[in-house]
Amino acid sequence: GEHGFVCYHRGSNLLDSNRSVYDVFHISFSDGAYQIRGQGGKFWYVASSGSVCSDGDLSEDFFFEFRERGRVAIKGKNGRYLRGDPAGTLRADSESVLRA
Predict the structure, then answer these.
(1) With a cut of 70, which residues of the chain have pLDDT below it?
(2) 5-99: what CATH class?
(3) What's the whole-number average pLDDT of the chain?
(4) Which of 75, 80, 79, 64 shows the shortest CA–CA distance to 30?
(5) Which residues form a coiled coil (predicted)?
(6) Contact (CB, 8 A) for 26 and 12
(7) By C-alpha distance, which of 13, 21, 25, 32 is closest to 75?
(8) Pairing mode, if any, of strands 5-8 and 33-37?
(9) CA-to-CA distance for 88 and 95, rounded, in angstroms?
(10) 8 Å CB contact between 38 and 26
(11) For residues 13 and 90, is the Cβ–Cβ distance under 8 A?
(12) What global pTM score does this model have?
């Protein structure tokens, strides 16, 4: 995409954003929210630090907001939008879509 892809951070449970390569994730919809599952059936979740991790045993709800021109904003259950930080780590710590 225009701003890159999401992939696993090698050797870690974190996810990277704004990359030239991507990994495939499975998305399920239930009760108005989405659950995101990756390798080995593990789920995405938002850690207390705000980092999005990929090794959860239980599903966690994420909320998709479909925007103009095919864009999607994703909000974690902590009420914050997902964004890539300056180092590329995917985090759920933005209060608005404009800052994500």
Answers:
(1) 1-3, 99-100
(2) mainly beta
(3) 92
(4) 64
(5) none
(6) no
(7) 32
(8) unpaired
(9) 18
(10) yes
(11) no
(12) 0.88
